[in-house]
Amino acid sequence: MSEFLNITFPDEMIRSFLTDKKHELRIPYCMTPYVKAGKTFFVRESCAFDENGQLVYTADGKPVPEGIEQWNSPADMPKEAARITLVYESGRIERLQNITVEGLLEEGLEVSIPPICQDKPFTEEQIQKLNRMTEAQRNEYFNTLAKHRFIGWCVYNDDLFAKYRRIWNAFAKENIPGAVWHKNPNVTVMKVSVML
Questions:
Q1: φ and ψ of 71, to 5 deg
Q2: pLDDT tens digits, residue range 82-116?
């Protein structure tokens, strides 16, 4: 039988579930329910009924429905309104700041890869230009390209981690204020599949 996770997720996390990009979920260890593989959980969201009686959710980016002063709290969400179900597959405990880039991507984060880092084949014009270069010029060209790509990947990684820190701190603020990023709390990494 499914039950609610007693956790409030930021809209950005909800959208990652909805687009099936989020397959890992980190929650403070002290909030971790004891579960076995296959256990299902409903995800709570802020929602409200619009003027037509249709349920709308804040994560969808729509304005507060007409005639409603504010969104309902996720804590007030009825089970029937849940549109996301998580199926627990496995878990492990780690320090929050031990997350890797692979973990960030499993958390559903997306950041644009800098153009210099996108592998594109050389054009015919570029090949001709390279063929006219001396060995020293080619070495300098490829060293410069490598440096720029390295810097681009560093910026990409910094952007990913900065975005996750922001999302995590918003998540911690709603659930356990003491579990902010800089305190590096123990977290349970829950591997989940999403059912919509």
A1: -70, 150
A2: 899 999 999 999 999 999 989 999 999 887 777 77
Domains of the chain: 3-44+82-195 (2.30.130.30)
CA distances from 103 to 28, 69, 76, 83 (A): 16, 38, 31, 25
- Whole-model pTM? 0.76
Question: How far is the CA of 69 from the CAs of 17, 26, 63, 98, 177, in angstroms?
Answer: 27, 32, 11, 41, 27
Other beta carbons within 10 angstroms of residue 180's beta carbon come to 16
Handedness of CA 50, 54, 57, 62 (dihedral sign): negative
> Distance (Å, rounded) from C-alpha 85 to C-alpha 64?
24
Q: What is the rounded CA–CA span in Å between residue 48 and residue 68?
A: 8
Could you tell me the two tokens for 156? 């990409």
Task: Indicate the DSSP class of residue 72.
Answer: B
Smallest Cα–Cα separation from 107: which of 123, 118, 94?
94
